[in-house]
Amino acid sequence: MSVAEILPGSAQDVLLLCDHASNAVPPDIDLGIDPALLNLHIGIDIGAADVTRALAARLDAPAILATVSRLVIDLHREPDHIGLIPHRSDGHAIPGNEAADRAARIARFHAPYHRVLRDRVRRQRPSLILSIHSFTPCLEHGGTPRPWEIGILYNRDTRAAGPAVEWLRAQGLVTGDNEPYSGRLLNATLNRHAEAQGIPSIAIEIRNDLIRDTAGVQAWAARLQQLALFLRNTLASKGVTAT
Q1: In sequence order, what are the beta bridge partners of 16?
Q2: Which residue from 18, 69, 73, 203 puts its CA 20 to 30 A from 38's CA?
């Protein structure tokens, strides 16, 4: 199977990414779980792929969507991260991963996926990268309700994050600033392909109960389109342009 779905687009100043777009498990990998778990947030970022596709169409921007479930390998983790091949996720055991060949899964999925991202960034040189994710309103085990409608995650580069948080809050949206978890800890893809390359970026986390249907997807794609246009103008005014 291909490690990524690539959507074309003529707007070269923006690139969209979706690391947890799929709940697919290759036929030769047995996770040892009830297949229904793949439809939960532990198997896929619910709604994120649909929002990414809708936003890509609105912006006429290229997008890269991963094609394997995060329960097979989490493409949004560094290769040495303890949760790269999860043995447990939100209280659910993943017994098929206990004896998984870590090096083989990295070589099969993680390394080629990140090569796709690397090569695209090198060719395109976008002036803004948006990574689309979703989060569950409340974890099943030990969680508390998460009030944010959307969160903006980032590491050290705040050129896009600061204006994005301000803009979203000005729209009346309950916005998390590095919430519901910190981009200082969970920002692997953007750390490598955006921040390390000097490209402004943000990870956008939408609460998944808001994007479970077509109406929600389109409403949030419209909001993110306006956010992207705002960030384009803001970054351009600061002299950040595609090269």
Answers
A1: 63, 130
A2: 203
The sign one gets for the Cα dihedral 82, 77, 202, 141 is negative
- Domain positions in the chain: 4-237
> pLDDT tens-digit profile of 109-128?
999 999 999 999 999 999 99
CB 96 within 8 A of CB 35: no
pTM of the model: 0.96
| pLDDT tens per residue across span 173-185 | 999 999 999 988 8
C-alpha 55/C-alpha 206 separation (Å) is 13
CB 23 within 8 A of CB 33: no
Cβ neighbours, 10 Å, residue 189? 25
Check if the beta carbon of residue 39 is closer than 8 Å to that of residue 153: no
